[in-house]
Write a structure and sequence with these properties.
about 270 residues, alpha+beta, five-stranded antiparallel sheet, 4 helices, 14 strands
């Protein structure tokens, strides 16, 4: 499909095009899961085999669809659940108060009926299964990558997310490398009410992503006063690989070691 290979206007690449020129954007929106399924499946196929839970692999992808989250982890949803409880190599942060996963259809928590003041059945719909994921008291979050099941910092080559009811303002993904330099940003145009949207970016020229910032609509979905109340469903991302840049603590220890070595050498003169 030609449009999958095109660099959409919403994507901006950091200053060195030779180094950061390999971004492919996948985007679609429509009234139901079938309307975005082809693009989601293309993204999956281009990333490779679904590696499931645990382990570490040299290629492939990971996925999160929220439906396997147990009741004890639904609300609040632990920010590191998909690194340690169900290891897939991601942890979340937000300037809000945390995260939540909706309940099954027919439950009091169906599509966040327990957290919103409007009728969620008129707005949110899941892409896969019955549950969706939301940011509490914020419309922003960050995703960081780890070797699954460990505290070892990792990077990925791709990340995509399904947005539910992004119908007023663009939702945005912003990508950062290991040096915290922005290497890309993509947005998806607002769709119709009750729609589903998919936005994914795959970097294929050697770029590595250490963090993805997500802007999900405008305003917290559970506030009752948001301009565009948006929740999310499937997260799909390239297999996290151990970072080539040492963690700050390792750098400090290395510098300290070099300093002690220099002192020792001076002492022998």
């Amino acid at each position: 499909m030609k449009h999958l290979r095109s660099l959409v206007l919403a994507l901006t690449i950091a200053s060195a095009p030779a180094a950061f020129g390999g971004a492919v954007v996948y985007s679609a929106n429509g009234p139901n899961p079938a309307s975005i399924q082809t693009v989601v499946d293309q993204f999956r196929s281009d990333l490779g085999t679904n590696n499931g839970v645990g382990g570490t692999f040299g290629s492939g992808r990971r996925e999160i669809n929220w439906d396997g989250v147990g009741a004890a982890f639904r609300n609040p949803h632990p920010s590191n659940f998909f690194n340690f409880n169900s290891p897939r190599g991601v942890e979340f942060t937000t300037p809000g108060t945390g995260f939540a996963v909706s309940g099954d259809v027919g439950s009091p928590q169906e599509l966040f009926a327990d957290l919103v003041s409007f009728d969620p059945s008129l707005d949110f719909q899941p892409f896969s299964g019955q549950r969706v994921f939301g940011i509490l008291n914020s419309d922003q979050m960050s995703v960081r990558f780890y070797v699954p099941g460990t505290s070892t910092v990792a990077t990925t080559n791709a990340f995509g997310v399904v947005f539910s009811d992004a119908d007023a303002v663009p939702s945005v993904l912003t990508f950062f490398n290991e040096s915290n330099t922005q290497i890309g940003q993509a947005s998806i145009a607002a769709g119709a009410n009750h729609s589903l949207s998919f936005l994914g970016v795959r970097f294929d020229a050697g770029e590595r992503v250490a963090r993805v910032d997500i802007q999900a609509g405008s305003g917290a979905f559970n506030s009752g006063a948001c301009i565009d109340c948006v929740v999310m469903d499937d997260f799909i991302f390239g297999e996290p690989q151990a970072s080539a840049v040492p963690e700050p603590s390792s750098v400090v220890l290395s510098l300290a070691g070099l300093g002690l070595l220099a002192v020792a050498r001076r002492g022998r003169k």
